[in-house]
Amino acid sequence: MTTKKKHGAKGDDEVPRLTLGSKFRIRSLGSRDQVIETVGEFRGVTSIGSVDALAIEVEGEKKLRIIPSHMLLAVDVIELAEDEEEKESGDVHYG
């Protein structure tokens, strides 16, 4: 299970990371005169040939949208899911 928190509070100096389960609003190029807006949950990074792309589960629809990285215009963070690796590791280090 991922823990989610709203993003955008003042004083939040942490740089957001793309974590599985986070919710984003993404604007990307659709054609020369069209911008596509996608709201959904981040499912991972994939590739189309040699191009990296974001995989987004579209909110309210049963589909996965693959957005090539060179088509991204803006990524708005709506809700960040806690990184499971950070959560599990805590502050305890063994040497």
Q: Summarize this, please?
A:
With 95 residues, the protein is mainly beta. 6% of the residues lie in helices and 53% in strands.
Cα separation of the termini: 29 Å
Sequence stretches where pLDDT stays below 50 over 5 or more residues: none
If classified by CATH, what would the architecture be?
Answer: Roll
The tally of strands reads 6
Helix content: under 10%
CATH topology descriptor: SH3 type barrels
Beta-sheet strand percentage? Answer: over 45%
List the strand order in the largest sheet: 1-6-2-3-4-5
Q: What count of domains describes the coordinates?
A: 1
Could you name the CATH class?
Answer: Mainly Beta
Describe the protein's architecture and organization.
- This protein is mainly beta and about 100 residues long.
- It has one domain: SH3 type barrels (Roll).
- The chain has one helix and six strands.
- It has a six-stranded antiparallel β-sheet, with no helix packed on it.
- The mean pLDDT is about 85.
